[in-house]
Amino acid sequence: MKKFVALGDSFTEGVGDADPVRPNQVRGWADRVAEVLCAEGEWEYANLAVRGKKIGQVINQQLDQALALAPDLVSIYAGGNDILRPKADLDALMRGYAGMVRRFSEAGSTVLLFTGFDTVDSPLFSKTRPRTAIYNEKVREIADEYGALIADYWRWREFSDLRYWAPDRLHMNELGHTLMASKVLDVLGAGQITKENWSAKIQQPSLPELAVNSRGEKLKQELGWAREHLAPWIKRRLTGTSSGDSLSAKYPDYIRLTAGAN
């Protein structure tokens, strides 16, 4: 039996891909990948990711637990919440990140890493683009040193389409997570972790037509977004709280995940 463990923050937990019958009420790309792995091969799956976690928290709260699970494949994506904090020391944080990858590599796990998304088209997050570029170069250096696979989110320009994003504009929606699952399976297939055609098992829904809104409708949408999503996000930053403070990992132990409810 092969084992897949996913570590990280909201991206890997699956925020934006709502599913009320699942733990934490989200599905996400990692669950979708695991569904294919479990259906097509002898795989088990655990997901330790929790929204809001920064690199140091992933290291302190998820690393040892994941190592104890002795995974054949481990995915790691953390750093987005650090990048949003301009005073974070990325060089120091990425040294810790590299240490995490080293420990999995020494334990015999195949490691899958992600570059950060290019926020060039985002009015709110475009200022973080230079920090994300530095983060990405560090990720590539770490991957080169330890032979890790890379899911190159930065270069996947399809995700610039707003139809792949949730109303909060910070997380992918169901369509985005579904596309990401297909992309990840392509990376795993190219790395000979899975069969090359397993990405075809992900059924990608058709994109809806782009809405054409008047200036007044757009302003109303912007005000609604600011009230519903931006203001709570700013409040959490000011108070030092996180949307994941009361949450636990979705799947802390191995399961055989199916496309239905688990």
TrEMBL record:
CDD domains: SGNH_hydrolase_like_1. Transmembrane segments: none annotated. GO terms for molecular function: hydrolase activity. Residues 6-178 form the SGNH hydrolase-type esterase domain. InterPro entries: GDSL_Rv0518-like, SGNH_hydro, SGNH_hydro_sf. Keywords: Hydrolase. The keyword Cytoplasm does not apply. Gene3D superfamilies: SGNH hydrolase. This is SGNH hydrolase. It comes from Glutamicibacter nicotianae.
